[in-house]
Here is the input.
Amino acid sequence: MYKLSKNDVKFIQSLCHKKHRHAEGMFIAEGVKLVEEIIKSKFILKKIYAIEKWIAPLGINASLVSIITEDDLQRISLLQTPNMVFALVEIPTAPSSIILENKISIMLDGIQDPGNFGTIIRLADWFGIEQIICSKDTVELYNPKTIQSTMGSFVRVNIIYESLVEVLKTTKVPVYGALLSGKSVYSTPQPAEGILLIGSEGKGIGKELLACVNIPITIPRIGGAESLNAGVATGILLSHIVGKGEEGLPKN
Amino acid sequence: MYKLSKNDVKFIQSLCHKKHRHAEGMFIAEGVKLVEEIIKSKFILKKIYAIEKWIAPLGINASLVSIITEDDLQRISLLQTPNMVFALVEIPTAPSSIILENKISIMLDGIQDPGNFGTIIRLADWFGIEQIICSKDTVELYNPKTIQSTMGSFVRVNIIYESLVEVLKTTKVPVYGALLSGKSVYSTPQPAEGILLIGSEGKGIGKELLACVNIPITIPRIGGAESLNAGVATGILLSHIVGKGEEGLPKN
Here is the structure.
């Protein structure tokens, strides 16, 4: 049984801050499912703290694991109900290239809420979207709340921070902008390639980017609500733009 | 300027607990938009605390309003960023009747997260769904987190807590169960009447209710995520089951 030192706790807590995460090159991921997803992925585990009854999945390097008490897990966990295992994971440094042709990508213009961002990553993974390009003021991927709310999907989606205007300058792929008015998504043909651009919770799509939108699309409103949550709206749009299934008929 | 007393603060804080909310018959709603929605609705305001720069909407009874300092608002607010006005609202006591015929209703089997519940209420409002029937173990509507995350939509949706099995015994309206396998929602014809049954985040639809499902429906998965968030899944399903718009073509 390993006893967490004050320094261990202090170090771990420092990783709640973006500055320290990037200085140390590490982020936090918690819980059985998330750690399993990371083990199966290209991400590199740096350290695992787990309680005794955690069953380590195959393929884990035992030297990375320290068994701690439930009380110690409680001390470091950021979850309301700690879930057996707490991991420190390396922030990848290899730059990712952006490929927009012959696929559907998501672009996020300044999403602020880590829960919404995590939900969108999970949705991207569900619908087989490989790439999310975020404006530089989008909430950080390695924010523990973002990571947790992806439910592990961040390991399968390529997430890149870039100037969106600069990226859009380099491509002719059509940009579908999620707006409160526009063409109904129900009558929008499913494209073979395209970018689904989602604005921030408070401000929507910024002015400069709005000028890059080729096809404004909307979810027609029937009742009284003024807007939809950004994650929910992304889910509905994706289901119409890319949704297909064995029994499903593509819309055109 | 009214100075909040210790008793005021104690009373308000007591309303964070379900037991006290129901003993006092009051719940908390905060922010400019939410209070405006309540004023326009059938809900009865009992008390408003607002800072000086809040502009009271027309139709408000001035005797209900106490002007307080920003510091005092900060003391009672449950929001990270208090938004000018804090209201106490009467919990309605008149029982609502359930009508299932000739409309689409939502049924929730044990949703636990107030954010998910609020999102579903907002979605119902967006898609013109008038009625949500909740199992008795669903999180409480008057939980401040639920109320806030509805963005005011709770005033337009009839929310009823009832034994779902008992309700389903009394009707022949078809029950669409949201499941991880079933008929693709993309090829499900839009019904004129029906119940969309959504299970809880952890456990899905309970066994006894599962036996009442007439049409299991699913959102076909393309990528690697194991599941979708309950609010997001409800949004996608609703957009296919009830979504229509001026430019949209109903699916059959």
